[in-house]
Design a protein that fits this description.
Layout (H helix, E strand, L loop, with lengths): L42 H15 L6 E5 L7 H4 L3 E4 L5 H11 L4 E7 H7 L1 H10 L4 E6 L2 E2 L5 E2 L23 H8 L3 E6 L3 H13 L4 E6 L3 H7 L5 H11 E3 H4 L11 E8 L5 H17 L6
Helix pairs in contact: 1-7, 4-5, 5-6
Bound molecules: iron/sulfur cluster (SF4).
Length: 298
């Protein structure tokens, strides 16, 4: 494989000199490599699934804004060669909403972690879903705060161990997909790093969906979650995903008792509802029309 020797700018791949093909490297800021994720971390797999889905759609990088918050997964905005915003903790969806309202033609995508989206950013998540704004959010869910050394998050399973739950968590975790669906999101899906081909398809569908789309992507953090919860290493964690995930279609044929400790993956919900930026444009046009007619109420 040819080696890139320089930072390339968008539109260049760095591979022309070698006659090779860029593949997904054309979407990466290669000058930012090597990445900072731990060996065995699932975040790179999920980033790859996102890039494959994006590549299939043939969308323009220059028409796409990727927004992240703070955390291990939010480092993606440093690695991806799009217009990116690496924002403050929990606020990725607030920034993304501003971008989308300012220019609804842009593809706006949020890539962020479970701590970021479900804890400090939880309100932004439910209100983005409620508004059905046309933003795709991919939650890298590793069940823990990795970057700050392993505190439990709102999705850490009851009984799981973290630096802040040394005797096991007594909290009941959020089901993020149920949360987003109940809040008004119109596309909801779940996949895992193990089932990466399926995850790629789910992300592609989410990107194409008009309205608020949410994909929970189960990731593995061997460094903090795995080590503290007897899952030992990345391979064991991926095998756990393999053994515990059940496709939602297969689940309809299973005994509820057999589903007790299982996680449903696949497309969980899809519906149609008015999209927020279109509704906003409609109201704005009504106000303009009234102003033209001199009928604007002060
Ligand atoms: Fe991944 Fe965990 Fe390492 Fe963060 S701490 S990079 S989530 S393995």
């Amino acid at each position: 494989m040819p080696t890139l020797t320089r930072q390339v700018s968008r539109g260049e791949t760095g591979w022309e000199e070698t006659g090779g093909k860029p593949g997904l490297l054309g979407y990466l800021r290669t000058g930012m490599m090597p990445h900072l994720w731990c060996p065995g971390c699932g975040h790179g797999i999920i980033m790859g699934a996102f890039l494959r889905a994006f590549d299939r759609l043939g969308w323009d990088q220059d028409e796409t804004i990727i927004v992240s918050g703070i955390g291990c997964s939010s480092r993606v905005t440093g690695y991806l060669d799009f217009d990116t915003l690496h924002t403050t903790h929990g606020r990725a969806l607030a920034f993304a909403t501003g971008v989308k309202l300012a220019n609804p033609k842009l593809n706006v995508i949020v890539l962020a972690g479970d701590g970021d989206l479900a804890a400090i950013g939880g309100n932004h998540l439910i209100h983005a879903a409620r508004r059905n704004i046309n933003i795709t959010t991919i939650c890298f869910n590793n069940n823990i705060y990795g970057m700050t050394s392993g505190q439990f998050s709102p999705v850490s399973p009851t009984g799981s161990w973290a630096t802040t739950t040394p005797y096991g968590s007594i909290d009941r975790p959020f089901d993020l997909c149920e949360l987003v669906r109940a809040a008004g999101g119109t596309y909801v899906a779940r996949g895992t790093a193990y089932h990466v081909r399926s995850l790629t398809g789910l992300i592609e569908k989410a990107l194409k969906h008009k309205g608020f789309s949410f994909v929970e992507a189960l990731s593995q953090c061997p460094t903090y979650f795995g080590r503290r919860n007897q899952l030992h290493n990345a391979v064991d964690m991926l095998l756990w995903q393999k053994e515990h995930a059940v496709n939602v279609r297969a689940a309809t044929r299973m005994d509820p008792e057999d589903l007790r400790d299982k996680i449903l993956i696949g497309e969980l919900y899809r519906s149609e509802a008015p999209e927020y930026t279109e509704e906003y444009a409609r109201i704005r046009e009504q106000v303009r029309q009234k102003a033209r007619e001199g009928d604007l109420v002060q």
